Fold this sequence. Notes:
The chain is an alpha/beta fold. The protein has nine helices and 15 strands.
Amino acid sequence: MDLVNHLNDRLLFAVPKKGRLHQKCLDLLQGSDIQFHRHSRLDIALCLNLPIALVFLPAADIPRFVGEGRVDLGITGRDQVAEAQSDVEELLDLGFGRCKLQVQVPENGEYENPSQLIGKNICTSFIGLAGEYFEKLEREVGKEKEKEKKELLEVEVKGGARSGSSMGRLATKIKYVGGSVEAACALGVADGIVDLVESGETMKAAGLKPIATILETTAILIKSKHPSNPQLIKTIESRIRGVITAQKYILCTYNVPRNKLNEATTITPGKRAPSVTQLDADGWVAVSAMVEKKCIATVMDNLEEIGATDILVMSISNSRTQRD
């Protein structure tokens, strides 16, 4: 099949082709009933039930493709959008891929504060964000110490951290490393690194410790400012939001004396409001409310304490909800 000639009437949806976000994205697409079959070694897959073509790209490239209008919709990390400085619209925080962009240094080294790294070698794959961070740090330190190097530290924006591979006129040397950034210090290439940290186990195993957090990030759904099919994007956004809501919440139902209803609905306020139904038994009502999964055990305990009975919890397989 000539894929190129089958893309003209399809909305282009970019998803990470590999890495920490890849499998979660596939699960999200499946939950949203976006059906497709990806042939081996092909980075484009035509959806079977919707006029969509999935484009599998490196997560770092997705903000640029969406920002330039080459694709209509994409899933990537908020860190990648910030690094690329792309002009995109964020539709949803997807709630997975949560991690931090941190400054890390050798555990047993001399550095305890990021300002000690000024003028040193920093390795990272986020040269834009790292450069901006150290540019700001150098300005602050320059103002505080008022040294003779003030003209070096007080950099104009046009000659700053985003001005090229030399990182403008920064005293700190920002070096690009595409992978295995955590090995840079052990190899003597860097005094510190800037990299994404999820659990911290990889950095700890490499003998590194965090001394500053530049950015906290999660996976997000982004769209072009000029999408080819706005109505279809609304449909996809609604489906994905429904899946995320179903993953986050469960449905809790219970019976409670009417004179305890105010207390009960304070415990279970629901996503918008709880549903309350009069029971045949005098003085009793049935309540149904969405509750966050992580809180359900405590919620059930509190309901039992005020006299609620027949407390049931049911999973939500899918949903349709509005923006919070």
